[in-house]
Structures are given as structure tokens and as C-alpha cells.
Protein 1
Amino acid sequence: MTTTQAATEAAGATGPGNGVEREFTVKARSQRQQIVRRFVRNKVGMTGLVVFLLLLAFGFLGPLVYGTSYATQNSGAQSVPPGSAGYPLGSDEIGRDLLAGLMIGVQRSLFIVLLFIAIALPVGLLVGALAGYFGRWVDSVLMRIVDLILTVPLLVVLIVVASNFGDARTPLGVGIILGLFGWLDLARIVRSQFLSLREKEYVEAAHALGASNRRIIFKHLIPNALGSLIVWTTLAAATAIILEASLTYLGFGVNNPSSTSLGRLVSDGVQAASTRPWLFYFPGITLLIIVLSINLIGDGIRDAFDPSNRRVRA
Amino acid sequence: MGRFLLKRLANYVVLVVVATTLAYIVASLALNPRSTYEGRNPPPPAAVVEQQLTAYGVNDKDPLLGRYADWIGGVVLHGDFGQTVRGQDINDQLGSRALVSLRLLVLGSIIGAVVGVLAGVVSAIKKYKVTDRAITAYSFFFIATPVFFTAVLLKFGALSVNDAVGSTVLYYTGYETPNLQAGFWGHVADQVGHLILPTLSIALGQIAYFSRYQRNAMLDVMNSDFLRTAEAKGLTRRKALYKHGLRTALIPMATLLAYSFGTLAVGATFTEKIFGWHGMGEWLVDSITSQDINVVATVTLFTAVFILISGFLADVIYAVLDPRVRV
């Protein structure tokens, strides 16, 4: 594959120069191009991506277009149902506009997810890769550390850490806390993948050719474990949003008076579910859509990486 | 294999001890039991507060390791988990709360894991058919919903079911009707009625989670060469799938199983809170709010033992399924 590509590139580079016209121009596609192409042709994945982009626009461009600020409290319009003048999705008990709240909430939740992935993915991948590839004492030490943190329930750790921040927990803080304790399961998954992958013939072959450990891990093992990595990333992104919502529901999540999050809107809504159902349903549905779209994208990417699982068998 | 498992078990016992120690120390550093006595009117004399705190073993002026040694000594030697910050014996509540939680956790996780794995396998075999699409849609929906959102929806659903039937079939508060006079079978029926919704709220999410992973694992295996070889040597597709495919596809699930119990213990907290079950999860959240170190450590010990039993089970499954894995 790479040879073909190199050859075509060379041909392409020299082609126009000496004016040789070729009868057939076969364009080689790199691995990456193929993956992108497969993803674009995947209806489910693209639906997820479009919805996700719409949500991005909703969260980041929406407030500019909509104009109403979530911080504005209108004592004349408390708990108005959806459809009232000026409040398309209704308002809460202190007269804040729910639609504006949802926009800010989506924005904050995406920010939390980004932070979470940026911290948890590299750490989990590295720990799992080292443990799975080297085995022996590296494995024992790393996995015992993982086991150790896993044995203290995640909720206890998160609440205890969060309770130290008192009344000033912003989405930034919550994102970092989630990231710091979110890599443990990834490490275990990567390790178990590497345990069986390292026994494969192509790894032995790479060894025999004198490839360094670093090369084997990054060029051979990680690409082959990419499927589970991506499934994890999407599921974990979903989990991060839900975990934020759950922590906030228990009173240990985002609680800074001036900041909000989707989780905060949902958990406020749960308290009001029977009397003001719109405060419960709209944030809940938004949360559902955002998590769903991320998962659909992940599914599309997975199929794009691994065409052997597609409908048409090669 | 026996030696391997024994080694793992010894490992786990050490880990339980370390985890409990960690939880105790972290809780001691972060929580402030003194606040129970603050803001009382009239304020209790300082000497009395000190004496009480010391008696309960949570005085931050006593050395931390000494307090810990006292507490763990009581647990190991006498099975005494100490007292809450208000002076009640933890042992009095531990038994009933543990039973309440275990009922929920064990039932929810077994249903979740078994049904989830089955759904995943079916989904992979019937790839892109109606069954697969239905299962996929189901799991995407429930993976995307927080437990407490599902639980509230279930509660609403139960309300309308009860309205439709005309009597209370599905209960959504507590784990039994207090002071029920209905004989043995009446009690059983009553408890089952209470158990349905909370178990559902746990199992629905677990099924979604497991079936997704199992489907992916199964699809990976279904396209592998060894399965084609198995078919080539004359096995039927079905036999090849179940004897060779499923066994391999279950290996990554073993890791997931152990991990899922950790998340389950977390998820159960919300279920307990919403359905008014007085279990371990609810106790944990309450104790952190009321700055109760001993209770936090006790609940952690319980959870650690629970997770480690499942971790050990996962190791057994690992060893049985895949003799190649050199752990």
C-alpha cells in the first residue's frame, strides 16, 4: 500500500514536469483517506457527526444568535411553561430562560468532556501499553496501582476530592477531577488487548527484524488495538457527561453560583419533575442527544477503521 | 492454574486491606467530624467535644495512625466497626444495609451481565438485521441516559401502570411495605414488587453496556481466520461460533466484568437514593455529608470486598477461557 502510494506520488511529481500523459491515472489512497472515505459513507456515523456539529453550533453560536442571557432573572416570568412569550422552552423558578440555559449547559459539558479525554486517554493508554507489553514486574506494579485506585470506589474518591473544593467547583475543576480518575478502566482494557496482541506473529516478525520496543508498541500494537481504544473513548466521553451529571445530582459536582452545566440543569430538573416537567424533560433530552451523537460518531469511526465488520464482506 | 488463582487471591486480600486503609486515611484528611458539634445551641463545652470525638475514634487531635490501628483492630479482632459520629453502633445498621444493597447489586449485575452478553452475541450474529438494530438502538439509548434519569422515568411509568391496573403493583419507595401482615408468601410478593423497579433501573443500563462490548468482541472474532478454519474442517457455523468464537470473545469481557462492579456500586447509590432504599450507597453519601469517617471506611471495606470477589471471579474466568494468558 505505502509502496503504491509512494510510486504514484513520485509519478505525480515528475508527471506534469516532463509532460508525459498517462492513459490511466490511478490515484492511490492512503490509509487515512480510506478511513475518512469509509466514515463519510457511513450513514449512522455521519448522522452522529451532523447532530454533534449542530449541538456545537447550538452551544457556541446559539447564545450569540439568541441574545437572551441565562443569568438574567425575570421575577415577572417565574416557572412559565414552554411556549410563553419570550420563553420558547419555559423558565425556572427564578425566571431564567431554559433555552439559554441549555445552550450554556451544552457548551460547558463539551468542555468537560474535552478536558476529561485530554487527561485520561494518554495516561490510560500509556499505563496499559507498558503493563501489557512488558509484563513481569512492570505489569505487576502498574496493575496493582490501578487495582488500588479501583478498589476505593470511584464515587468516594470523586466526592472526597470534590468536597475539598468547597463552593467553587467550576466545569474546569470537575473536568480535571474526572480526567484524573477516568483512565483506570482504559489501562486494563489496553493491557488485556496487548497481552494477546504481543503473542501475534507480526510482533515476533517485527522483533526479528530488530524493531525497537517503542516502534512495536506505537506502530504495531496501538494501531491494532485502535478499535477498542475508540470504542472506549466514545463510551468514556459519554460516561464523563453522565458522571458529571451524577456528581452534580448528589451535590458534589458543578456548584459554583455563576456557572452551570447540563448535569446541573438535569439534576435541578429531577427535583421539579412532577410540578414543572419541562425543566426535567428538556435538559434530559438534550443530555441524551449529546451523548447519543458522540456514541454514533464512535461507532462510525470504528466501522471505518475496521471494514471487515461492514455489511459487505470482502 | 490453582497456584495462579491462589496467588491472585492473596493479592486481593492485601488489596482489600490497603484500600480500606487508604479510604480511612483519605476520609480522615478530608472530613471534619468536629462540625457535628459546631453550631449547636447552647455550644457544648470544649472538653466534652474532645472526649466524645476521642471516644468515637475520630478526634483529629489524636494521631491518625493510632486511630486507624484502633479501628482496624476492632474490625479484625472483634468484628466491631466502631461508632458513627452521633454515637450509634455501626454494626447495628451494617447487616441490614448490606443485605439491602447486596439484593440489589447481585440481582442487577447477574441479570445485566447474562442478558447483556446474550444480547451482544445475538446482535453480532444477526448483524444489520432488525434484531441487531433494535438491540443497538436500545443500548445506545440507555448508555446515553444517567441512572437517575432512567429511575425517575421508571417511577412515572410505574405510576401510570398502577393507575391502569387500579392497585399498587409496582412499588417505588423502600424495599418492603412496613408492618405488612400477609404471611410468608405475601411478604415474598411484596418484596418482589418492591424489587422490580430498582433492579430494572440497574439492569437496563448494564445490559446496554455489556451487549455493546460483547457485540464488538464477537464481531472481531467472527471475521477471524481460526473461525473460518473451524468451519473448513467441517464444523457447522453454529458450532464454530459457540465453541470457538464465543469462548474467545468472552475473554475481554472478563476484564470488563470486574470493572463493571465498581461502576455498579456507584450506580446503585442513585438507585437507592431515588427509590428510598436504605442501603450502603445511600449510607455512603449521607456519611460524607455528615462528615462520618468510620462509616466511610466501613462502606469502602464492604465495596472493596465486593469488587475484589468479582475481580477474582474474572481471573477464574480468564484462566479457564484462555490458558495462553500469562499473568
Protein 2
Amino acid sequence: MSDPTVTMASERTPEPGPTAGAGPGRPSRRSVSPARQMLLDLVTRPRFAVPGTLVLLLAVIAVFPGPIAGFFGNGDPLACDLNRSGLPAGEGHPFGFDIQGCDLYAQVIYGARPSITIAVIVTVTSTLVAMALGLVAGYYGGVIDTILGRGIDLFYGFPFMLAAIVILTALGSHGIWAVSGTMAAFCWPTMTRVMRASVLATRKLDYVKAARALGASDLRIMVRHILPNAFAPVLVLASLTVGGIIAGEASLTYLGVGLRAPSISWGVQLNTAQSYFNSNPNLLIYPSLFLCVTVLSFVLVGDAVRDILDPKSR
Amino acid sequence: MTRYILLRVLLALSVALGATFLIFLVVFALPGDPIQALTGGQHVMSASVEAALRERYHLDDSLPLQYLKYMGGLLQGDLGEDFTGRPVSAIIAESWPTTAKLGLTAFALEIVVGIPLGLWAGLRKGRPVDYAVLGGTILAFAVPIFVIGYTAQILFGINLGWFPVAGTEEGWPTSYILPAVVLGILGLATTARLMRTSLVETLSADFIRTAIAKGMPRRRVIVNHAMRNSLIPVVTYLAIDLGGLLGGAVIIEGIFNIPGLGFQIFEGIKQQNGPVVVGISTLLVLIFLAANLVVDVIYGVLDPRIRYE
């Protein structure tokens, strides 16, 4: 597949800025390190900046839901009053009330936390596992590689949704960790394959041979020489996966096998709302809207990251 | 080539064995006692009846033994019967046509709409059409399928009244169009994107430049040279996707209340009906693996380099 493109990406001509004084000689840009140049490229392109800001905002909401939920004066998602069940929007309650009579705005804001927590846990663990396993399998090859390859094939044999439903039912637990663990179990195989392919491409490069000739240990070669030049494709895949994980979690929860009622999450809200969508469409609209915007932001950020790290794929 | 195919078949068989065992393991671990569940956990069953039932479903055997007995039955085409005494094969035979109709309709949509969309965008790279298609596909990736599902239900089923909201009473195609569109939308987006990217890549290849330089008409360059070569990854994706589509769609069949394989499996899980879950899952995994095997073989035919890997 694509080889690590660190140098390629840094050689990209920077897009002309709004000042448009882009003559051939811009020494300040040239002297910036490749990594920083890449980051600069990323942050300044609008296709990243807009969804990036949204993602940042969502992160803030996930970490500090209290103040944001309390913006309209009724920030407690569990301050519910059945007398107000399903009432439309009113003073201090911009989205109205859900069936239990809780403030829908506060509920939706608090719903961001589990989605994003699960997305982070799944992405981080599967990326780390994939990097470690891909590195070892790609570097040593042989028996380790074969065993790992067949194991991955095994995971590929299952349709994801089906397997996740069966496992979550069997686990009987519906917490964040159970959901994250189940999803991570199906995320790492693809990433490991990509990492392995990338390591295979890097392993043959001259500087790796040079390092070996100089007597560097396997561990040092892997960590210092191969890893930094081989992880870009996995990073791209990981950033593209985040959105899918959020959507997947919501789907599992919506089906009733993911998070359950005492937890506040978009999937739970949508699961409850489907019985009332005729009389209270708001219950469906607001959580869906937040969910879609979140997934879309992460997908777009992933797209932009791919454009920068892997320019060939455009 | 024979060696390559043989190797692939062996590989698929070993994965099938491992996967079915995993399914068995997980379903075995499903919480609750299926025999007690038959009477709603009321303990009204006499001990001898209970023992007979356990005997009949091999529930007293160890897990590996249960698995062996099951595989033995499977090789003879016997998928066992569920805990209410219905043969699993009958359940599958009943729900399979529904799933096939739904999946094939979605598949046809992916081909008929997805490929032309991708071609259109690829030929007009960087123009508004291209951006519209790209934007549309990103949107299709971003909106979770169940959200698309109930939005379509509300919009086209309830508000506009064009299609039935759920169920399959009105038969094909009326009852199947809406769920098939929703089911196919993700594959459609992927197909369109793949087609576009692949076409753009092929169009910048040397042999295209040569063809143009020789003075070949543009239409022939595009149809005979560019399109043919750029279809390879698209066909690969479509073959894999067909395996997934025929495997039933748990979410879509649930939302639209369509009694296909996905629906049955979800009901089976909820009712702790182990044999149904194992039976259908096994079938699905086998379909999935068969689709992958076909793709592998096609790939070997199309690209001889892969055979010697």
C-alpha cells in the first residue's frame, strides 16, 4: 500500500495564504521542521479547521458538560418531573422535555460524554495494539506473522454488527468498558494489517540495514527506526475510524445491546424516542442532530488528516 | 493457479472452522438457562421432562463435545432445531427469500446508481459535480444507518405516504424499496467513491496518454481503456459487499420489521434461542467467507502477481 509519506507530505507546496505574497522565497517556511510544517498545513486548511473546531467543542462538552448544559439555567439532566413529560420548548428549556420530564437540552449535552469516551478508548487501544502487533509481525515475519495473520482472518470472518450484538448479549454487561472492549475487538485487525504492510515496506529500506549493520538491537531498530516511519497509515486509518465508532456505538445502543437506561447517551435517547416519534419528533431530532454532526466532524477531520499524511490517496 | 485456488479454499475452510467454534463458544456463554426460559423461569417443568430436553439438545455435554456433535450434524445438512422444536433449517428457508430480495434490491441499487455516479464525478474531477458526489458520500458515511432508516420512515412512509412504513405485506417491490435504499446507501457511497478514485487514477496512467496521443476517440479511450481498468477495485468491493448484504441486515430488518435472517437472529438472541443464533450465524459466516473466496480467486485471475505471493 502507501509507504510512509513523511517527507512527501512536507514537500507539498503550502497552499497560498490569504495574504498571497507567496513569492518563491519564503525562508521562514522552509526552515520549519517537517512535522511542524505538516501540522501547520493541516490547521490552516478550512476543510480541517471547521470540523476540527467542532471536534474541539465536542471534546470540551464531553469534559465539562455541567457549565454548557447549565447555559439556559437548567443544567441537571436528571432533574426530572413527570408532570412535564414531553412538553415542548419553553423558557430556559430550548429543546423541551423528554418522556420522563427531564430537560432534553441537558440530556443531549450530557449524551456527548459516553460517545466520545468510547470513541477515544476504542481508537487508542486498537491503534496501540495494532502498532505493537503489526510491528512485531512485520519485522519478524515467519511463524508469528502466520499465526497473527490467521487470527486476523478469523475476525474478518464475522460481520461486525452481528458479532457485536452476540458478544454484548453474552457479556450481559452494558457499561462503557463492555461496549468499548467489544468494538475494539473488531477494530484492531484492520489496523494491524495496515501497520504490518507499512512495516514490511519500511523494513527493507537502507537506513534500517545500516542500523542493523551498526549493531543496533531488534528492539532499537523497531522502535527508533521503523516505528516513526511506518505509523502514518495507521494514524490515517485511526482518524477515519473514530466517526464510525461513534456511529457504531449509537447503533448498538439503539438496538438495546449497548449502553442502558441509567446512562445518558444519544443512543439511549434515540432508543426511547422511537416509540414516541409520532407524538414527539423533537426527542428524535435533537439527539440525531448532535450524533450526526459529531460523526460528520470526526469523519471530515479524518479525511483532512488523510489528505495531509497520505497525499497520494486523494 | 490450481495451487493458488486450493490454498485459498483451505484457508477459508480453516477460518470457517475457527469462526464457527467462536460463535458456538459465545452463544454457549449467553446468560440464562434456555430450558428454564421455555416456561418463563416458572419451574413448572417436571424433572424428567427437563432432563429429556437437556438430553435432546445435548446441553449436558461439554462444550467441545457439543461442538463436535453440531458440526457432525452440519456436515449432514442438519442445523438442529430450536428450543421450541422447529428445525432451524425451516426458519432459514422461511426467512432467506426475504433477506435475499432485500439484499439483491440494495445490491442492484449500488451498481445502477453507484457506478454511474462515480464515473460522472471522476470524469468531471474538480468540478461542482465531483464535489457534490464527494459531499454526498461523506454525508452517507457520517449519518448512522438507523438514523437514515427512521428518517426515511417518517419522511416517505408517514409524511409523504409513498411507501409502507414497515412490514412486507405489500410484497416486492413496494415494501422493499425504502429499506433497500437505506440498506444500500452505504455501499452505494463506497462504490461511487471507489469508482471515482480508481477512474481518476487510471486516467492519469501512461497508457491513457498513449491512447489519446494515438488519436483514439475520447469515448473509446474512456470506455475501452479507462473504465475497464478502473472497474477492478469496484468489482472486488461489490463482491465482498454482496456477501454482507445477503447475510441480512440486523438494524434495517429490525427498523422496518422485515422478517429476514437478521431479524430472526436478533429475536433468537433476545429469546436465548441458541440453536437459531448458532445456525444462522454459521450460515452467514459461510456466505461471507464464500464471497471472500470468490473475490480472492477473481483477484488471482485478474492480477497474476498475487498468485505467487
